[in-house]
Each structure stands twice: as structure tokens, then as C-alpha cells.
Backbone:
């Protein structure tokens, strides 16, 4: 289940970022997921879900953003991996 969020984005943003609306929406979701993960507001699994990525792909995206994939404690990582099996 999901809910839709509608954002008003100035037209100039699309040309400045060389993005179409669907691409910009994906980028915004990914950027929000990475930042909220970095801030500790979302777990890695929930952030990956928000970004629409697998956990492995999200970890690669974190590296591209220069964010450590190890924001969680060892216990939190083990718990999350156990739930995914």
C-alpha cells in the first residue's frame, strides 16, 4: 500500500537538472531516501523501499552519494537481514 504525494516544481528546475518529470521524481525519492537514511530517520531497508531499489542497489547509491552504508549497529543490520530472508 502506498500514498501519493504531489509536489509543485518550478519549470526551470527541469531544464536546470536536464530531467523529465518522471526522472526527477525518481531522483527526488532517491535523494530523500539517502538523506533520511543518513540522518537515521529511515532504516536501510525502508530507505531502499522509498527509493524503489533493492537493498543492494540502494547501498551502491549510498556510495555514489558519499554516504556510509553502515549507519546501523551490527545488531540492527543482523535483524534487518534476518527479516529479508
Residues:
Amino acid at each position: 500500500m502506498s500514498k501519493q504525494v504531489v509536489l509543485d516544481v518550478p519549470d526551470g528546475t527541469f531544464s536546470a537538472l536536464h530531467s523529465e518529470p518522471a526522472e526527477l521524481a525518481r531522483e527526488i525519492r532517491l535523494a530523500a531516501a539517502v538523506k533520511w537514511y543518513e540522518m537515521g530517520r529511515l532504516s536501510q531497508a525502508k530507505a531502499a523501499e522509498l527509493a524503489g531499489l533493492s537493498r543492494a542497489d540502494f547501498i551502491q547509491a549510498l556510495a555514489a552519494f558519499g554516504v556510509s552504508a553502515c549507519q546501523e549497529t551490527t545488531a540492527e543490520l543482523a535483524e534487518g537481514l534476518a527479516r529479508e530472508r
In short: Residues 62 and 68 are 7 Å apart (CA to CA).
